[in-house]
Each structure stands twice: as structure tokens, then as C-alpha cells.
Amino acid sequence: KAGVTQTPRYLIKTRGQQVTLSCSPISGHRSVSWYQQTPGQGLQFLFEYFSETQRNKGNFPGRFSGRQFSNSRSEMNVSTLELGDSALYLCASSLTGDGKNIQYFGAGTRLSVL
Amino acid sequence: GQQVMQIPQYQHVQEGEDFTTYCNSSTTLSNIQWYKQRPGGHPVFLIQLVKSGEVKKQKRLTFQFGEAKKNSSLHITATQTTDVGTYFCAGLPRRALTFGSGTRLQVQP
Description:
The structure holds two protein chains of two kinds.
Chain A: E1 5-7, E2 10-13, E3 19-24, E4 31-38, E5 42-50, E6 53-57, E7 64-68, E8 74-78, E9 87-94, E10 104-105, E11 109-113
Parallel strand pairs in A: 2-11
Antiparallel strand pairs in A: 1-3, 3-8, 4-5, 4-9, 5-6, 7-8, 9-10, 9-11
Chain B: E1 4-7, E2 10-14, E3 19-25, E4 32-37, E5 44-49, E6 55-58, E7 61-65, E8 71-76, E9 85-91, E10 98-99, E11 103-108
Parallel strand pairs in B: 2-11
Antiparallel strand pairs in B: 1-3, 3-8, 4-5, 4-9, 6-7, 7-8, 9-10, 9-11
């Protein structure tokens, strides 16, 4: 069974631009969660999608948005990039996403904002 | 704010020494999960604890869930260089799985 796939692996953008990251979950998994990881800040929860609906949302500004498609693939968008958005963005898929199932992480997208 | 706290943030041990990381929540957790992230890698699931007072072992790793389901610990006996990485706990205080800040373990050969 294929794992969680995130594309692209690396991105370099400049301030003010926008970016879209993609995540393909494990086949059969209906929940996709997104996290931002920066040194010293651990894993900060962005949002979780289940069956194309945003089910939970973390404390991030509205510049961070996402969506999930009918095949469970998910995208995350960040508009008007700021220097502080430089981070590793991880997505994780799970069967039902209720916190009781294992979360399988992708390798992440490393975003650098210049 | 962060509802699941983890200590210490960093620990450096000599190979063969023991290591423990602690996870504390201000609210009762329905379950606790532990993940390991190797340097340059992504978090990988280690174990899940569900019952109050539960103890589980995986070779040299021992995981405990507190009686009040508000704290947990991971203990590694006789560390090896392969144990290097960051260990995260994750709990469900509300609706979304909340990760602790992680404990970075460095093992000196």
C-alpha cells in the first residue's frame, strides 16, 4: 500500500506570493490533517478534513486555507506569504481522523519564503 | 495555546544510559499516542495508550498512561544511537489530536 505523498518536496517563494501544497492520503483513508513544523515550535495543527469537509481548525490566520476532494486528496493554500511562513508542512492521513486512529505522515513540503 | 506539554525539550545522553520524556495535559485525554521523528524525517507512529494506568512495552521502550489520563511517559532503557530523534506525544483533549512540543534525544556513542 502506498504511503502518504506530498508534493512538491521543496518550494522557494517570495513574500507576498501564494502557494499550494498537495497531499495524497493512503488509499481508504478519509481524514487528512495538516501541520506546520518549525524549529522549537513542534507540530502546530492547521486543519483537518474529512469527507471533503473541514472538521477542525487550528489557530492560524485566514491566509491558510485548504480543501479536500472527493478522492480524499487534499490541498493547502497559503496566500500573501510572510517570512514567518517558512516551515516544514506535513500532512497526515488516518482512517477516520477522530484522534483514535494512527496518523500516517507524508515526508512534508519544505517551504522557504525569501 | 498548547494544551499538551512535553518535557524536557532536549536531552543528551551517553549510549547505554536511560532516557525518559514526560507528557502532561491540563485536561483529561481520551487516549495518548507517541511518535518518533528521526532527523530529516517525518513523525512515525510508535504506540497508542487508551486505558487509565496502562503500561505497554516495545523492546527497550516502556510507555505509561497516568491514572488520571492527564499524563504519560516514554522510557527508553539503555539507549542506542538508533534512538536519536524527537519523540512526540499526541493526545485528544478536545476534537483535534494535539501534539506536544517534542523531546529531542541526542545519544553520544
